Each structure stands twice: as structure tokens, then as C-alpha cells.
Amino acid sequence: MSLLEFPRGFGMYAQQNLSALLTILFLIFTLFVTVGICTDLKVLVRLSDGQITEETLEADSERDVITVEFKQGDGTLITVLADFKRHVKIFRALVLGEPERGQTQYQALCFITHLDPREFIPTESMARLRQKNSHVVRSADESRGPEQLSMDVAVNLTQAWQLSAHIRNVCGEAQQAYTSQADVTRWTGRGLQRSMFEVQPSDPDVPTPLACSVATGLWEPCLCSYRLSLEWYPCLLKYCRGRGPSPYKCGIRSCSKSFRFSFHTPHRQLCLWDEEA
Ligand SMILES: *[C@@H]1O[C@H](CO)[C@@H](O)[C@H](O)[C@H]1NC(C)=O
């Protein structure tokens, strides 16, 4: 058992009630006075297949961005960026290809969705999190999702900076970025140009494609499904009562969440993980 803690100056009464905290809290983080704007936290996380990975959580309080990155057991690199300034979440998966089946070395998938800032703890709290015991393998306190997302709109990456300045960096290697019609409605309502979004498939005469899992030809267009699981991230601040009048921030609650993205792909060749589904 370990204790997650924010250091002095964060909550005036943090050193009180230590034994009570120990029983309440699961993780130990010690707060140092942070001078740096951009901080990294590396935690060991158990993935859904039982494998353990090192996850990097980066908080940039000046740009108001949190980035979570880890490698799955199959070699896929997952990056999730939360842009609190623009309320945009960017998911990238770098999936290793199978060159012997005519694929490239890896394939970059990019999904862009609305961010509700309450999904994560605030950036400045994230920047202050420290762990005392870096050997502890973390499992989330709470499991959320799965969230099903129909990503049937292509985002023009040349214009995507209007949506979030970080899309170019995160999704530069992707051939295509996808979002949902509900988010497009939200964003165009905010004044973004509709011309940067294109509903897929773009030709209205094309019939709705089959799921890639049942499509036959390698070059057939199909509806691909990709499942991504974020196994550990700080989703809520915990407050404790000390002798003072008001509660203070004394730790975090962690969540896991899975997402299933479905999107139109021009060739089943680009969705081979969907075969055995
Ligand atoms: C994306 O936007 C750029 C700049 O407006 C434009 O030149 C390009 O044709 C667009 N690409 C697609 C695929 O629509």
C-alpha cells in the first residue's frame, strides 16, 4: 500500500492525519516544489492482457496539455494528448505493420474527439504528482467505458491546426485523421470551417461498406474497428480533511477507459487486426 500526496504549499494541512491518509489512499506520491513547467511521470501499469508497461505521463502547464504514452505488448505505441485549451483529445496508435503481407513498417492511426476537461485531473495538478515507489505496478481504481465512437468524418490535416495546434505534431505520420459527426457539429458551431471535415465515404452513391472482419478482398473498402485501452490515468482529485477549515487536495483517483473507434478504410489491407474479430 502506498500513499499519494501533494506536498506542502499545495495544502497547508498535508502533513496532518497521515495515518488516516494511509488507509484511504492507494498510491504514494510526494510533492516537490515544481519550478519546471513541463514534467514527466513514469509509472508501471498492468495492461488488459496482463503485461506490464511503463507509461509516461507528461504535463505541460503552460500549454495546458497532458500527454499519456505507452507501448502495448504487441509493439503498438499509444499516445493520447489532452488539449485543455481547445478541449480536444487526440489519440494516436502506431501499429506495427506486417511487411510480408505487403504492409508498411507501421501504420499511424489518428482519432480526434472532444475533451471534457473533467475527464482528467487539471494540468497543474498533474505536473505536481510524484510517486515515491516507482516499482509498484498500478491498476486503476475505477474502470470507465467502453466508449463506442463512430469516426465517420475525415479531418484535413493541413487545416487541422485550427482545431488544435498539437494535431500536426501527434498525427503528422498518419495518412488520415478521423472524427465523429457529433464533434464536427460542436466545432463548426464554435466557428471552425466545415471545409476541413469530409464525411466518409465521400461519394453518396457508394453503399455503406461491410465491416472489415467480414470483407473478403484485401483491396475492398470496409468499416474498420480499432480498440484502444488507456489502463491507468489520474481522473479525479481526492480531497482530505485536516484540522483546517477546508479540505485540501491530498491525492488522486485513477481510472482506466477503453474506446472502440470505427472508421472507413479504403482497403481491408489497412485493417488486418480486425480479421479475427
Ligand atoms: C486540405 O486542405 C488543403 C488546404 O485548404 C487543400 O489544398 C487540400 O486539397 C485539402 N485536402 C483534401 C484531401 O481535401
Summary of the model, kept short:
The chain has 277 residues and is mainly β. 9% of the residues lie in helices and 39% in strands.
Bound molecules: 2-acetamido-2-deoxy-beta-D-glucopyranose
**Number of folding domains?**
1
Shape: globular
Assess the beta-strand content as a share of residues: 35-45%
**Unreliable runs:** 8-16, 22-36
The average pLDDT score comes to: 85
N- to C-terminal distance: 38 Å
Strand order of the largest sheet: 7-1-2-3-4-5-6-10-9-11
Word description of this protein:
By secondary structure, the protein is mostly beta strands. It has one domain (39-236, 257-276). The chain contains 4 helices and 13 strands. The chain has helices spanning 18-24, 123-126, 167-171, 181-189; strands at 38-46, 52-60, 65-71, 77-83, 88-96, 106-114, 137-138, 142-150, 153-155, 177-179, 197-199, 222-240, 248-265. The strands form 2 sheets. Strands 7-1-2-3-4-5-6-10-9-11 form a 10-stranded mixed β-sheet. Strands 8-13-12 form a 3-stranded mixed β-sheet, with no helix packed on it. It starts with 17 loop residues before the first helix and ends in a 12-residue tail after the last strand. The site of 2-acetamido-2-deoxy-beta-D-glucopyranose has 3 residues, from loops.
